[in-house]
Fold this protein.
Amino acid sequence: MLKILVINAGSSSLKYQLFDTDTHDVLAKGICERIGIDGKVKHSVPGHDTYVEEVEMKNHGDATRIVIRLLTEGDTAVLSSLSEIDAIGHRVLHGGSEFTQSVIVDDRVIEAIRKCIPLGPLHNPANLTGILACSEVMKGIPQVAVFDTAFHQTMPEKAYLYALPYKYYEKHGVRRYGFHGTSHRYVSQKAAEFVGRPIEELKIIVCHLGNGSSISAVKYGKCIDTSMGLTPLEGVPMGTRSGSIDPAILEYVMNAEGISISEMTEILNKQSGVLGISGVSSDFRDLDEAKKQGNRLAAVALDCFSYAVKKYIGAYAAAMGGLDVLVFTAGIGENNPDVRRDVTEGLEFLGVRVDLDKNYSKHNDISAEGATVRTLVIPTNEELAIAMDTRDLVEKLVKH
Ligand code: ADP
């Protein structure tokens, strides 16, 4: 039995989950918050109350030491010592064109992640800090990096190139990379298992709809296109991100409002999407509530979202020359039946037909009887996917 610690390090936070990779059970999980500000940790063990402690954390090294203490000492412990952790798996946002799959961390990998910082300036430095903190505090325990971009590296040139001067691709790596790759890979594999057919025979569209949303076309097990781009800003409108817009809007609005490029970028990332349209919230539960109360713009924001997702489904069915399985996942995809209904309505011409009773009563298979496309709701589990990649790579390492 291998015990794998999965780490997702953000700029001032560090989330962790300890997995038993035989049973897939989470033995403990938690989050260190406000790292470098003051510090607070929440730690939970299944069957026990969540433990909360305010404790100073100057950096991710301090946070890592606290995680080890909570995992191995006192009432919160689930391990007798640190040596019980077999490996650590890290979520890393951007692997550029360098990484097509998960890898064991070594000096070369650390350097390559560092090189991708310009592509993922908000996340990669934090992800790297998490890796370096673990190398220092948990010396000798193998580490694996799992990239959000890796699964999408199979996209053909025609899908990943932007129609810009080619030199920007050559000099600066400007191309579509795509994100949520670990989720798209995990969910498409689960979907194939669910329908009981080899993924190599299936044309699957995965709609990962959460705070950030992305759609991908998975043909015969390989991603051939995805809606996010160089950064997670492209694609459908999201909680606070605009998704795709006419690029000329930037200069137009900057001139009209007298704002700088960094203010504009902040608006596109933090004040747009369904929050921007509705002025109500980025959370779909709040939007549903506001719509019920008669708020017109909340209803419009929801419509814009579902319409954009529907258009990607049409585009990707065309790109793949057909569709066998349509999958919904992540916070909205798993929990918001109204969105699933609105997205799939009118797609009968593709063979998509949803049974509304099933859609509204927590079924995994929400397809109507006789539908040629299976429409599924499959919970994503990026942390488990990271743990399993880590286990596979570490087992190979031991065998060699
Ligand atoms: P993130 O991209 O940050 O991981 P999530 O996948 O949790 O985000 O998605 C957040 C969105 O999912 C919110 O808009 C929220 O309305 C919706 N959501 C999450 N959980 C539920 C739930 N249990 N019921 C209804 N909606 C939910």
The chain has two domains: 3-147, 196-382.
